[in-house]
Specification:
The chain is mostly helical. The chain has one domain (3-100). Helix content is 64%, strand content 6%. It is built from two helices and two strands, in the order ββαα. It has helices spanning 28-67, 76-100; strands at residues 3-5, 12-14. The protein has a two-stranded antiparallel sheet. The chain starts with a strand and ends with a helix. The chain binds zinc ion (ZN). Zinc ion is lined by residues 6, 8-9, 11, 20, 22-23, 25.
Length: 101
Amino acid sequence: MGLMICQDCRKAYSDRAAACPNCGRPSEEMEEKAQAIELTSKRYKLAKLIGGLAFVFGLMAVMGTACDPITRESTPTTAIITIIGGLVYLWGSLGKWWHHE
Ligand SMILES: [Zn+2]
């Protein structure tokens, strides 16, 4: 346990405090944690976005082939894209939820 100097008001306060008791500025450790959480949530948002798009795209492609009388052949690639997209989307949702609990 020690003291640290506030970056804003230059007053010393305990390094165990989450924020400066004088001006309310969060300690550097807390800021780093907040940034890490922000980065994590952005990563999961991106996963949800990409996964969701891949899922929708794959689903449309699968349905499109099913309705198309010319290219009726089954396309495992689009099915795989749909499944992976769904899984990535799910991972994004669960991961975000997990980190915020
Ligand atoms: Zn301060």
